[in-house]
Amino acid sequence: MLENSLPVLLSRLDFAWITSFHILYPPLTIGLAVALFFFEWRWMRTNDEHWYRLTRFFEKLFIVNFGAGVATGITMEMAFGILYGPFSQAAGPFFGQVLGYETITAFMYEAGFIGLMIFGWGKINKKMHLFATFNVALSSALSAMWILVANSWMQTPTGVALKNGVFQVTDWFAAILNPDVMLGFPHMLIASFELALFFVAAVSAWFILKQRHIAMFQRPLKYAMLALIVIAPLQVYLGDGLGEVISHDQPAALASMEGHYHTYNKDGSVNTGWHVVAWPNAKGDGNAFAITIPHVLSVLETRTWSGKVPGLDSIKPQDRPPVVIPFYSFRIMVAIGMFLSLVAVWGVWLAIRGRLAVKAIAGNKWFLRTLVFSAFLPYAAVWTGWWTREIARQPWVVYGLMRTAAGVSHMSVPLELFWLVGYMAFELMVLGGAAYFIAKLIRKGPDMTSPIAHEGHQTLGHLEEPAPHEPAKPEYLRPA
Amino acid sequence: MAPLNALTQVQHMLTFIWWLSLGLCILLYVILDGADLGAGIFSLFVSDEDERGAIMSAMAGTWDANETWLIVAGGVLFGTFPFVYGSLFTYLMVPLALALWGIITRAAALELRHLAEKRYQRFSDWAFGLSSLATTFFGGMAVGATLLGFPLTDVPDQVPTYVGGALRFITPFSVWTGVAAVIAVSLAGGLFVRARFEPSEPIRQHAAKWTNVAFYMALAAVAITLVVSSAIFPWVSSKWFGPHFWVWGLAGIVVVFAIVKMRLASARDHDLAAILWLNLAIAFMAVGMMATMYPWMVPGTWTIYAGATPQVSIITFTLAMAGFFPVMLMYNWYQIWVFRARITKLAAYDH
Q1: Which 155-174 residues of chain B touch chain A by CB within 8 A?
Q2: How far is residue B210 from each of residues B38, B39, B255, measured CA to CA in Å?
Q3: Least CA distance to B160: which residue of chain A?
Q4: Spatial CB neighbours of B262, under 8 Å, sequence gap ≥ 6
Q5: Domains in chain B, number
Q6: Looking at chain A, which residue has its C-alpha nearest residue B80?
Q7: Would you call A70 and B85 a contact, using CB atoms and an 8 Å cutoff?
Q8: A409-441 confidence digits (pLDDT tens)
Q9: B216 falls within a domain
């Protein structure tokens, strides 16, 4: 089959690699920007130095993460045209426009304020600085919205008609507000918040475990837990809703996520079984083995005891997605979502019992250790979630309308390997650098001694003279 | 091809203006990031570590926003000219990948240098300089390869796309444009360094020598490029030596005037003025180049009208032009303004 030819598989791997190594960074940027805004706002309201130190400390981590996101992100925009030229051409009238908005409204918008946020301390006034932080948070969330609009449209392509090999938009609202994005975007946005909250909580927990700055890091930890008791279960709820959308609009994807091969059992009754674990047989028309709980699948997808869920046998063989990766990725993501909700409940239970107070918090060693460990889980959930979403859509690049094999650029295998090997090297370098320096900054700890940045003295309307007598006046308040 | 050309008159107009704005984005990218790239190449020849660090911190607050114009150009290309985007970028896969790896390395070096220990800083300085060089060279090569055009498929009911070798982009002309790009940004980088350092800093003298050499090389590079282009591209010679030859001559005189003014300003230490005169010269050359290419976007391959989405719409256009572009220009300007001050080498991150 054309779909499984080596060039097509490699082109998918090429794209999967660069997207997987880009999506590591934006969720933290999106979520942490909101946290930074909160810290800075508390500082402005209370004038409490701890909030200022926290803002500056987490901002340093934010910068490293943001830099890695930009470094890996520029490729993304070019990669559609490079690796998926025919797809970019056909989908351009919608997809290209949406990505164009993303660059204009979000990317540029964000870049315009991030420099001010990072280097503006002491140069611009406090309100302007808070405004810059706010805009960074808003623009990065907007960016996620456009990206999800584009990707969701590939899952549920409404509002377009295929004319002369081009997807022409017949209804902009239907295309932008496609069925998948209504929950797809919130699911990604809340994932970003959850990831960043666990990141903040884990960093704080690490300091408390090390008996460093306990009074200062107790605050973000407690606030993170209070936010997570809402965010973590909300994420599970949104994910469940998105699953329902998929079962309705992408039955093949759902069947592959669940390893659901047969709509009916051999005796003719409806197959309602949900597999905890399963492995497909060699022929790929059923499971070689599976641990199955009856009725759960019907309850999950149809909200009835014995409702019919279309299996892979109701899909034409050439239109069936692969099973193993979507099946296990999906389960890992769900398990992480559940586990993180339990961690949030644990945290709030401790808070209610007063165990998260400054004096008591360092005593909850196992809770703090769990938090440090939990920082890595949202990353795994983001990866597995996206793998589920993208692989379960195969063999389509635009679900039901354009096959992946038809959308890929004509590339030779050596060329695809050139891309893959190069990006493996460069993006692992970025990941290694970012992880190493984030860890180093955390070990070094917050800067408690530098003078607090005061109001800026930036006066507009004064153009510097080239005269040599001007003193070396700009004192840079840099992130140390 | 016929249905792809089915643009209404309004759409024709909109496409044209989108093309101008694409040119503006690329021009802004070349002007803004060109200086950063050139300063990076210059840093390869700076032996004082603090000075290298200071060059990086001179662009620390703005490099990201400058580079974003490239992203915006990509967005406009994908959004409005998807047929060009989808085929041109496949054709340019190798030079784009190499330039992108340069951009990745450069971003990592810029953001991580100040956190690293001394011995790694030397490594990151090399990475920064070499990646600036690679990005410029392969970016320049991609431009040259674009000017040469590429073959398209002809399948009924499908958008024409690129099927050809991955190394087709390598030609004497594209290698030359790569070299010329390196020379041009070297000049811009020298002026940038001069403008961003305190007058008493020794690096300014160093940059003055560099700028001198780069200036004469750039003059030669422009002259060679003009002669070669008019010799090998019929779409160039037919315009330049056609009935409106005097228009091109006038534009050339303006460019020469701006270049002379730049030299004078630079010699008098009016660094900001020198940069602005250089930018004016670049802008005039860019307008001249676009006018020469019109109506081709990729000469011989895509005209701007055949390459545009059949759904160019007045609504999205107005949103972008009246809403986003002015705002973007405003805050980009504000940011450059905030970070305009001169620095000393002690502004290297870790001091």
Answers
A1: 157-159, 161-163, 166
A2: 11, 11, 22
A3: A86
A4: B191, B274, B277, B278, B281
A5: 1
A6: A97
A7: no
A8: 888 888 899 999 999 999 999 999 999 999 999
A9: no
